[in-house]
Amino acid sequence: MADETIVEGEVAVEATAPTESREGRGRGRGRGGERGERGERGRGRGDRDRRGRGNNDEEGGEELIEKLVHINRVSKTVKGGKRFGFAALVVVGDGKGRVGFGHGKAREVPEAITKATASAKKKMIRVPLKEGRTLHHDGKGRFGAGKVNVRSAPQGTGIIAGGPMRAVFESLGVHDVVTKSVGTSNPYNMIRATFDALQEQTSPKSVAQRRGKKVADLLGRGGAAPVEAEAAAEAIVE
């Protein structure tokens, strides 16, 4: 009898349950459903954006060179022990005069590298190259305690650089360059100092356009014959 009473009580409760409670449940489900739909919509937009970017890269035929420069493991002491994380420094370039760097932090190494790569792609800069293989002129860069000297080199010299700087020039597409790093060996500061030197690079075409002159006029000031200056001006790619 007790069981029947309980069963009947449950049935009675379900049958005579106030409409408000059911509506409240329905509202909760509806809100959850709306949130779920919104979440799905948000994820759909993100997926479409990612797919669109990927398709644009594939359609444009752009193949980026990714170089992992440095990974640093950091730890945070909490009540239950230590919590480890990773910081990655990545350099990205197209090998044709565009390069960028970025860093990312995450609990896992692959996720940190992904974040750093995405950040590097957003901050890519254009650097003019001489004959597509070296720099147009010498330059100096500085960031914090890091100082960097970069010099153009004749064909066949190769990349005379070490550590993080080599990754930058390989991603940039430079084949002949001589560099020297003075001061700190911190990879972050070395990369920033190298980019400071690269941002000061200018090509004869940009200088001539800014001054309203011809490239041959600028090259002829070094004592070269007009014919040689014209030939050198035509040989300049960028």
UniProtKB/TrEMBL annotation:
**Which residue range or ranges hold the S5 DRBM domain?**
64-127
Against NCBIfam families, the record matches this protein to:
rpsE_bact
Q: Which GO terms describe its biological process?
A: ribosome biogenesis; translation
Q: What segment(s) does the record annotate as region Disordered?
A: 1-59
- Keyword Ribonucleoprotein assigned to the entry: answer is yes
GO: which molecular function terms?
rRNA binding; structural constituent of ribosome
Instruction: Reply yes or no: does the keyword Phosphoprotein apply.
Output: no
Q: Which residues lie in Basic and acidic residues bias regions?
A: 20-56
Species source reads: Novosphingobium nitrogenifigens DSM 19370
Give a short account of what the protein does. With S4 and S12 plays an important role in translational accuracy. Located at the back of the 30S subunit body where it stabilizes the conformation of the head with respect to the body.
Any Pfam family matching the protein: Ribosomal_S5
Please give the record's comment on domains.
Answer: The N-terminal domain interacts with the head of the 30S subunit; the C-terminal domain interacts with the body and contacts protein S4. The interaction surface between S4 and S5 is involved in control of translational fidelity.
Concerning PROSITE patterns, the annotation shows: RIBOSOMAL_S5 (PS00585), S5_DSRBD (PS50881)
Q: Give the matching PANTHER family.
A: MITOCHONDRIAL RIBOSOMAL PROTEIN S5
Q: Name one GO cellular component term.
A: small ribosomal subunit
Tell me its family: Belongs to the universal ribosomal protein uS5 family.
Q: Which residues form a coiled coil?
A: none
Matches recorded under InterPro entries? Ribosomal_Su5_D2-typ_SF, Ribosomal_uS5, Ribosomal_uS5_bac-type, Ribosomal_uS5_C, Ribosomal_uS5_N, Ribosomal_uS5_N_CS, Ribsml_uS5_D2-typ_fold_subgr
| Summary of subunit composition and partner proteins | Part of the 30S ribosomal subunit. Contacts proteins S4 and S8.
- Which terms are listed as keywords in the entry? Ribonucleoprotein, Ribosomal protein, RNA-binding, rRNA-binding
- Protein name stated in the entry: Small ribosomal subunit protein uS5
